[in-house]
Predict the structure of 5-dehydro-2-deoxygluconokinase.
Amino acid sequence: MLINNDETKKYDLVAVGRACIDLNAVDYNRPMEETMTFAKYVGGSPANVAIGLAKLGLKPAFIGKLADDQHGRFIKTYMTTAGVQMDESVVDSAGHKTGLAFTEIKSPSDCSILMYRDEVADLYLEATEVSESAIKASRLLLVSGTALAASPSREAILTAVNYAKKHGVPIVFELDYRPYTWRSAVDTAVYYRLVANEADIIIGTRDEFDRLENHDGGENEATITDLFKQRAQLIVIKHGVEGSYAYTKAGEVFDGKVYRTKVLKTFGAGDSYAAAFIYALLEGKTIDTALKYGSAAAAIVVSQHSSSDAMPTVAAIEALIASHQP
Ligand SMILES: Nc1ncnc2c1ncn2[C@@H]1O[C@H](COP(=O)(O)OP(=O)(O)O)[C@@H](O)[C@H]1O
Ligand SMILES: O=C(O)C[C@@H](O)[C@H](O)C(=O)COP(=O)(O)O
């Protein structure tokens, strides 16, 4: 069974990886050189997904290492208030800092991210700091590809994957490729492959699957043929504004259409899409419906200023689906 329906589980999902800070340009539609004001939000892909699930009414928990600084404390308070269980997260005691992502919004379709990720606390999560009991108590485990970029976080992720397998908890691998963190393309491909072979559900953009395969211009058919030889049951490949596809091991293909909207910025699409897609699966909806939820959530978030704070409610997603033909 892909999704565990055990209602006695304490958590719907445990996300492991980074919780950071996004500083989003307030003076947008201009290059960052001309941006003087930034607004602060919680960021980091797995944190964003956990916040998205909480906003959708589920019970997520987050395992990660937070800096012992003002940003780390802001993140913990924000996520707790949003409904993410943070008791399994740990605080860094060695002076490592919170990762920062400055976002540039040059136009609604031309955005970029300038990341400050040297010696960041999240990459210092130790394997011994990953709670086996929390993972055992969850319906799903979500691991982020960026957390595989360096040790000891790499071993922490592999430990989380091992606990999930030991306790029969399905694993979602969000490829979440952030180039700044990786040492080499070969490293990325090696560690992506290791976790992709153990994951039940894999979600990524076409470009991210190319990083897993360590070449450019890959084709979805070849990718899924290769990955379905391993454990994966469901693979989602996103193509930005062109939409997305979900493939099952049984050979089904589902086409995820895009909801056109007034776009403010491009980032935040992937994390909101993942949160709403996973929510729909956890609620027992069909893959077709899960794709609609993912696309609708992404359309809502790209029309707003933040990634985490803008995560939609179920009512907002369902209203968009009801009112639009994709
Ligand atoms: N400009 C947009 N307008 C509306 N929906 C979008 C837009 N860009 C992306 N999306 C939705 O978000 C999903 C994920 O976007 P994508 O850019 O592929 O992921 P990521 O943000 O991880 O790079 C797409 O499949 C699509 O449904
Ligand atoms: O993941 C990060 O560290 C940065 C995010 O917090 C930021 O909001 C973002 O880039 C999200 O982009 P997405 O992958 O398009 O959801």
